[in-house]
Amino acid sequence: MTLGPGARWLLRVATALTLTFVYVPLVIIALYAFNESRIQAWPIEGLTLEWFGRALDNPGARDALWLSLRAALGATALALVLGTLASLAVARYRFFGRETISFLVILPIALPGIVTGMALNATFNTTGISLGLLTIVVGHATFCIVVVYNNAVARLRRTSQHLEEASADLGADAWQTFRHITFPQLRSALLAGALLAFALSFDEVIVTTFTAGPDQTLPIWILSNLSRPNQLPVVNVVAVVLILLSTIPVYVATRLSRDTGAVSPTAGAAQAAGAR
Amino acid sequence: MAFVHRHKGLVPYLLLLPGLGFLALFFVVPAYYLAHTSLQTGSLDAGYAFTWAWENYTDAISTYHEQLTRSLVYAGIATAIALAVSYPLAYWIAFRGGRWKTLFLLIVIAPFFVTYLIRTLAWQNILSDNGPVVEVLRAIGVLDDGERLLATSTAVVAGITYNFLPFMALPLYASLEQIDERLIEAAEDLYASRLQAFLRVTLPLSLPGVVAGTLLTFIPAAGDFVNAELLGTPREAMIGNVIQSKFLVITDYGQAAALSFVLMAAILALVLAYTRALGADRLAEAR
User: Fold this and answer.
1) Which of B27, B177, B194 sits opposite A3 (nearest CB)?
2) Which of A245-259, B61-75, B99-113 has the highest mean pLDDT?
């Protein structure tokens, strides 16, 4: 496509500005983590590693990180199973109510988290279910299912059914066909969906405030410590650690896109987000 | 698929059963309980009773219409800015990214794997009275000495825009990336100017992404309370803040639930008006 030199230049500047807008906050928070002073003033007075030690010794932060990891893993696992099954039904079968069902699966992500969270809280309270890891997982899974489902449906629609039919013609049963034919085609889409689901769960604040009870996930721990000026340097350190940890899924996604070539998981994630 | 023929109609329902069962149990049932709660009156000490308390709704609207309007306005402005910022970016990656497309897309979404709160915290630091932005703006005379950036509506809207940017950028990219460039070339061969080609070919073809991105940004933004809490003051309180404190702090469950239904209705009305304006058929494509 042709673009005038002016337009091309403008586009480049706009892209560069947006990327700056996206990255500068992270750089600044990383700098503050090494700040000698407790007071977050600009420019930074001196550099220290003291807060990293403090953060390591902080039992609240450690417990919260552990809970967040378990919750995200649980929600992702649940979403993988339920989302994949539903995607197979919608993408590979024609049946009564198909459109309604794909709408119902998408609905949870189309509601503000505060509504989902409150509704779950009201239910758990009325039915006497005590809040904890399990309720956090359930709350997160409601919107994680959609992410896996969308990724899987998008992939299934692009891959041919003929391979599956051929497999059946050669005498494979349904499970064998899934294991040897469908699953390998789905694998990278599922991984992309799982990454996104994990990230969403790990990140979630709003639904979690209503489903966690007295337990604190990492985002909730951060939220409750932000109001204590004494804890701010430790929060900054936790932030830096999280920034570093977040490079893992990004790295995995890059590797994945190299392995699978044309159909990249990021594009898959983009599509999943788009389909939402 | 092979098993279609053997088991006829039952298989898809069996495949759907676990997922739909889960959503029914933890999404539909809760919606019922929330509706039930919204018609309750009472307090933590006196207990709660279901009294068909429709006044929860009228009280909620008359007391908090200001916060409700503010939420919708903030979310609307943030969505518009996110669209304006993301479109050139997504366009550039989709059409000029070449073989680096995936890498560029990763560069854009990588920061969003970092917890949302941390990103908001970063904005708190950046916009704070001793922070870099205020220093610079004061030095060049844009801000007076007493003026602040943090604890203003500008800060809240900036935070929302930043936090929900990927929800706009990703669907935009997905729809721009799918455009067949030959269509644009054809428009140019038929003597459309570059602007005409953009307005009459590229833009309409990317509308599904615009619609999806707008909804994905606007809906969570309208219900958000974290940005207003961390970057604003009670003067910038959004409806999410009201609902959250009503429910978790004041334990006025009835009114909190009623408010959340009011919020949903407001969002739904706006979304319908918006999609109607752009054409319902395009919404179907966006899904």
Assistant:
1) B194
2) B61-75
Q: Are residues B109 and B183 in the same domain?
A: yes
Taking CA atoms, what residue in B is nearest to A88?
A: B15
Nearest to B132 among A42, A115, A122 (CB): A42
Same-domain status, B32 and B125: no
| Domain end position, chosen among B27, B53, B79 | B53
Phi, psi of B48 (to 5 degrees): -115, 145
Q: Which of residues 45-64 of B touch A (CB under 8 A)?
A: none
Other beta carbons within 10 angstroms of residue B110's beta carbon come to 21
Q: Between chains, do B118 and A242 touch, taking CB under 8 Å as contact?
A: yes
Domain match, B140 and B271 both? yes
**Which residue is closest to A15 within chain B, CA to CA?**
B89
A276 touching chain B per CB within 8 A: yes
State the pLDDT at residue A257: 57
B94 in the same domain as B38: no
CATH of the domain at A244: 1.10.3720.10
Do B125 and B258 share a domain, yes or no? yes
Cα separations in angstroms, A154 against A188, A200, A270, B246 = 12, 19, 11, 41
List the domain range (segments joined by +) for residue B173. 66-286
Inside any domain, residue A3:
no
Tell me whether residue A208 is in a domain: yes
Both B90 and B217 in one domain: the answer is yes
Asked whether residue A36 is domain-assigned, the answer is no
Instruction: Say which residue the tokens 């990454």 belong to.
Output: A195
Tell me what the mean pLDDT of segment B193-204 comes to.
88
How far is A206 from chain B, CA to nearest CA, in Å?
A: 8
In Å, what is the CA distance from A137 to each residue of B17, B106, B152? 19, 27, 35
Q: Rounded to the nearest 5 degrees, what angle is found at the Cα of A217, between the Cα atoms of A216 and A223?
A: 75
- Domains: count for chain B: 2
Average pLDDT over residues B95-116: 78
**Could you say which residues from 62 to 91 on chain B have a Cβ atom under 8 Å away from some Cβ of chain A?**
85-86, 88-89, 91
Size of interface A-B (CB pairs under 8 A): 302
pLDDT of residue B103: 78
Q: Is residue A217 part of a domain?
A: yes
Q: Is residue B3 part of a domain?
A: no
- Spatial distance between the Cα atoms of A147 and A269, rounded to a whole number of angstroms: 8
pLDDT (tens digit per residue) in B38-94 = 998 877 777 788 888 888 899 889 999 999 999 999 999 999 999 999 999 999 888
- B159 and B235 within one domain: yes
Question: Could you list the residue range(s) of the whole structural domain that residue A79 is in?
Answer: 62-275
Q: Is residue B151 part of a domain?
A: yes
Greater model confidence, B8 or A71: A71
The count of domains in chain A is 1
CA distances A115 to A112, B24, B39, B54, B259, Å, are 6, 16, 16, 19, 9
Residue B207 reports pLDDT greater than 70: yes
Structure confidence by residue, pLDDT tens digits, A5-47? 788 888 888 888 888 888 888 888 888 888 777 766 666 777 7
Min Cα distance A50 → chain B (Å) is: 20
Q: Is A114 in contact with B244 (Cβ distance < 8 A)? A: yes
Residue in chain A closest to B134 (alpha carbons) equals A42
Minimal C-alpha gap between A171 and chain B (Å):
10
| Residue A253 pLDDT | 66
User: Rounded to a whole number, what is the distance in Å from the CA of B225 to chain A's nearest CA?
Assistant: 8
